[in-house]
Amino acid sequence: MPQYAFLPDRALLTLSGEDARPFLQGLVTADIQKLSDSRSLYGALLTPQGKFLHDFFILAWGGGIALDCEEERADDLVRRLTAYKLRSKAVIARLPDVKVCAVWNAAVWPAGLETPGNTLPLKDSGLVMRDPRLAEAGLRIVAGEVSARAFLATLGGMESDAAAYDEHRLSLGLPDGSRDIEVERGLPLEYGLDLVGAVDFGKGCYVGQEVTARTRFRAQLRKALFTVQAETGMLPAAGTPVVQNGAEVGELRSGRGRIGLAFLRLEEGRRAAQGQESLTAGTVRLQVALPRRAAASDEK
What we know:
Blueprint: E1 3-6, E2 10-16, H1 20-25, E3 41-46, E4 52-61, E5 64-70, H2 74-85, E6 91-94, E7 99-104, E8 119-121, E9 127-130, E10 139-143, H3 145-155, E11 158-159, H4 162-172, H5 209-218, E12 223-230, E13 241-244, E14 247-256, E15 259-265, H6 266-273, E16 279-281, E17 284-289, H7 292-299
Parallel strand pairs: 1-11
Antiparallel strand pairs: 1-7, 2-5, 2-6, 3-4, 4-5, 7-10, 8-9, 9-10, 12-15, 12-17, 13-14, 13-16, 14-15, 16-17
């Protein structure tokens, strides 16, 4: 039976005007030319040095574009986009009275939503999309609450809360923006954003593109994000060092209960995932695994 939850920590921004698409195309890691009424994207904004600033879902919206982003940092995203706007004919604004709802654990999805990124308009207003990052992540509904609940009624299922969805996200190893990725410090490839479709290596230039491409082709990654689970008890707080034989090899990022994410040195993380090393955080021994998408990539 599917579960669903409204996510109060998300905000919607809109970009409208004749230059909205070319303006965003020159900034973000996703290829805006692939955006359509039937396809949504996931992307990021980086510094010129290729470091993480924001991630977001990118939707075709009312003739323009909408960004599903972090609520607490939405004003910062507006500020950074505005700094690049210059003479571009693009208007950036907050979109009120629109909610984001996640749906997961359905055995079968509605027709037209079989593939990540597939998007359908809702009858009243808004849209529903298959999460572009990973098939198992489920659906995202972006709409007013009345429209969202009308669509949810066609699915059935059980209403849950944002904490339950967060646990589902963690089980898939999906980072949650600045909770997991250090702003102005993290490289997108270290956190696997390329493995969940956020980085399009076939598009033209964008801010931070040169460093991102060089990181990929030179295989310079030394750290990565891993899924971790406490063998007993609960995980310590985010920021707790992860230790192997007395030496610090990383730290915990977001977590809930026994499951979470940890940013680890790549060699030690892989060895722990293979059962060759034992890692601890505080007094808790960790079970370590590659996030699902990263593990699938390694198998190819």
